[in-house]
Amino acid sequence: MSVHDQIADIGREAWDACARPTGDPFVSYDFLHACEASGSAAPRQGWAPRHLALRDEDNAVLGVMPLYLKGNSQGEYVFDHSWADAYERAGGRYYPKLLGAVPFTPATGPRFLNHPDIDAATVRQALLQGALTLVERLGVSSLHVNFPVETEWSAMAEAGLLPRQDIQFIWRNDGYQTFDDFLAALSANRRKTIKRERRDAQADLDIRVLTGDALAEAHWDAFFAFYMDTGSRKWGQPYLTRDFFTRVGQTMADRIALVMAFRDDTPIAGALNFIGRDALYGRQWGTLEDVPFLHFELCYYQAIEFAISRGLSRVEAGAQGEHKIARGYLPSPVYSAHFIADPALREPVARYLDGERPAMQAEMAAMTDDLSPYKRA
Q1: Are 168 and 331 in contact (CB under 8 A)?
Q2: 199 burial class (0-12, 13-18, 19+ CB within 10 angstroms)?
Q3: Contact of 71 with 95, CB cutoff 8 Å
Q4: CB atoms within 10 A of CB 130
Q5: Could you tell me the pTM of the whole model?
Q6: At what angle do helices 242-251 and 217-235 cross, to 10 degrees?
Q7: Cα distance between residue 66 and residue 47, in whole Å
Q8: If residue 377 lies in a helix (H) or strand (E), which one and from where to where?
Q9: Rounded to whole angstroms, how far apart are CA atoms 339 and 134?
Q10: Digit-coded pLDDT (tens) for 214-226
């Protein structure tokens, strides 16, 4: 097992031999390298890479794990601030901690990446043990693995990590051939409302979905302005630098769908999506004009249309947002797993999570029953 303070030390070929078969754009070398090389996920921002590579006796890479030494809990979307506050009030030191995740990306995906010629469970067990060993070696408080796939989550719980569950809102493609097919599955009131929202949002605007060679630096200039304006108003300091967007535009253009709204050929708003093997992942959005329902149009309805056109099975629109339910995005579970070294913190967190999980499940069921926009069977 080797530990690397930059993904470039492992290299694109070795990393992507493990990541590419997953079809997940966010664990690709190009995305993670863009986060690092652009200064977005950098030690001074609280993200110090400690990526793991499992190697054989000939030094060939059998598996990799994106791993970071975190100096804060920013940009994670699994909230442990109360744990940190309680531990530090009691005299402990919560930071730094280790985090297995994709920076700034609350999207479910694999966190233990194996070469396709090697058994996935064997690689996962070795990488998890390597991460736990690193906790001890570095003397840090904890290891957190955010937004793993369910099989990884279950395996980590069996290995003794504390399992946590939360809710996101996901649109699922029930074999729709057109957006009108999707509308036909909704109640009459919701169908009428969505048509009105789309009509109002699109009035006097030209909405384009840009991908591949259609993406240019001018589009990224405009989108970064949207991102900075909206991000600054929502959470203070946006995480991603301008250089990040250039880098993913150069290396991942075919895995990007940038939805932009133009008024008289001037871009006024945009929503950034990444294309996976079977899903579209909504990420950042921003606007310089207050246009009614434009957020819903760019982030939700255009994403649904794109997913239908590509035959994708779902749209994952990111963290939070109960308002997404009315637009066809239903609550779904997302996961994290946590190892806390000190029993004085681990035991109260375990008790808290034992109560939180069934509460999340009950909330998800209630939202589906009470708020679903789909026709009742």
Answers
A1: yes
A2: exposed
A3: yes
A4: 18
A5: 0.95
A6: 140
A7: 11
A8: none
A9: 12
A10: 999 999 999 999 9
